[in-house]
Amino acid sequence: MNDERSIMILTGAGISAESGLATFRGPGGLWEGHRVEDICTPGALAADPALVHRFYDLRRAALADVAPNAAHQALARLDAGWPGALLIVTQNVDDLHERAGAKRLLHMHGELRSALCAACGDRVSWCDPLPPGAPCGACREPALRPDIVFFGEMPYHMERIEEALSRCDLFVSIGTSGAVYPAAGFVQLARHYGAETLELNLEPSAGSDWFAESRFGPASALVPAWVD
Ligand code: BV8
Fold it and tell me: Where is the Deacetylase sirtuin-type domain (predicted)?
């Protein structure tokens, strides 16, 4: 591709699958028999903080054993070389887009390598296990929690995301099941604003019918072929 259209890209767990990070709703998508919808809630954090902290500690630790794949690397190349507006919005909380070199990137569901103070809202980079009750460096309250958007919580950066959706000429969805809102509704918004829509996924997502074009296969093949 070599024009200056405005591009918005949404990614989900499927783009990191070939790097070795499990997806949520595919085979083996349960974690210790739990569904992410049951763990990833403010209620679960309040009822069993050790379980929720352990869920994120294990996933944070796993980052050391994985690397960006050809799909992350292709998006980073596109980001570096695209003269027009471009925004990668990821639902993923891993750091593989950054490690591939992506710059114009927003994490709408938070990040594993960040801790959030539930008392004062301060954020701090965090790479180690995060025990429940860890003290906040800013307000000293024992209120550090995973910097993750739980179900029922407002995703991050929504104003910037909605602005980008209203202006994009092309909306591309990569490796997401279309099971979680508001991300799953972005394709409808993009179409409403007149954008072209493309889905790159292993299989049809829940929102496949909303896409003008869908290509099915592994992201590590589809994304470089689309970018290059
Ligand atoms: C909110 C945390 C409102 C991080 C997650 C309508 C409108 C708005 C909200 C709702 C609504 N209906 C229902 C809701 C509520 C809810 C929701 O959507 N529930 C669902 C279950 C119905 N949404 C929310 O609660 C959201 N908040 O709306 O707030 C609000 C307003 C005002 C004030 C306060 C609040 C918050 C949602 C965020 C929840 N957090 N996770 C983490 O733990 O990782 S969600 C979780 O699902 C992950 O973030 C994940 O990213 C996300 C989506 O999953 P996918 O990434 O798509 O992964 P999945 O496994 O499902 O699919 C993988 C896909 O990849 C598959 O299609 C597969 O085929 C494909 N694939 C696999 N391998 C490959 C591949 N593709 C290519 N190549 C491969 N190799």
Answer: 1-228
